[in-house]
Amino acid sequence: MIHFDKITKKYNGCVALDEISFTVKPKEFVSLVGHSGAGKTTLLKMILVEERPSSGSILFGSVNIHALKRNKLHKYRRKIGAIFQDFRLLPNKTAFENIAFAMEMAGRSDSEIAADVPYVLEMVDLGDKMWNFPRELSGGEKQRVAIARAIVNQPDVVIADEPTGSLDPINTYEIVQILKKINDLGTTVILTTHNKGVIDSLGKRVITMEKGRIIRDDPTGRYVL
Ligand code: ADP
Asked: Above pLDDT 70, what percent of the chain?
């Protein structure tokens, strides 16, 4: 589904990714681990087409995503949902409006928005906080809104960059359970984390990075650093 073919990324001579090659299959749950600076975020930015590789290519199906023209790139981006450590919610919009906005951007109709926003908020167990602003939500609740926003347009892949990095253990557990549920429903998940407990509890594929390279790729890995 996503195939990295010898991806190298250099920032002013600093090698962030060094000839990375690997494949993520449909419906896989893949965790990326590695010390700070190993290249995890840069790798996710390549999939999100926020950065361009210095060399190599990434195929999504049979499509070279970094060769897409603007219109097709827009369509490709809708297939990817993203979640970040800092939530990235719009502060002056309610939970409902944050998600509705993502649907509007994807060209969805008002009736779809009215039906789907409550549905995804229920899915993350936030049906009762629909009209709250981000400042009125806890960290765990904010991240659940961000997850609802990431999945509302039914992406093929969810990218989660340190989604539990600023959460306590109970909220971390809940977020991981939601990501597992999304994966069980058929969405590919690519997660980066520093949390050993998260990795060990998942029991899914773990790719370990070091200095821009993949040094381990275990089908049912544990956290080894
Ligand atoms: P990780 O997510 O594993 O902590 P990153 O992908 O953020 O690692 O960073 C990998 C390397 O690339 C690091 O050496 C980092 O300093 C460098 N790097 C990342 N982004 C930039 C940037 N925008 N400009 C210059 N160097 C960068």
From this structure: 100
CA of 72 to the centre of ligand 1 (A): 28
Give per-residue pLDDT as tens, 181-217. Answer: 999 999 999 999 999 899 999 999 999 999 999 999 9
Instruction: Decide whether any atom of ligand 1 lies within 6 Å of the 16 Cβ.
Output: yes
Sheet holding 55-60, edge to edge: 14-24, 2-11, 55-60, 63-64
- What pTM value is reported for the model? 0.95
Closest atom, ligand 1, to C-alpha of 45: 6
Atom 5 of ligand 1, nearest CA residue: 39
Residue 159, classed as helix, strand or coil, is: strand
Q: Which atom of ligand 1 is nearest to the CA of 9?
A: 12
How far is it, in rounded angstroms, from Cα 142 to Cα 1?
30
Reading the block at residue 129, the tokens are 């906080």
Q: Which residue has the tokens 């977020």?
A: 175
Query: pLDDT tens digit string along 139-158?
Result: 999 999 999 999 999 999 99
Q: Indicate whether residue 98 lines ligand 1 (CB < 6 A).
A: no
Return the H-helix or E-strand segment holding 47.
helix 40-47
Contact 50, 222 (CB under 8 A): no
Report the candidate in 28, 24, 33 with the shortest Cα–Cα distance to residue 59.
24
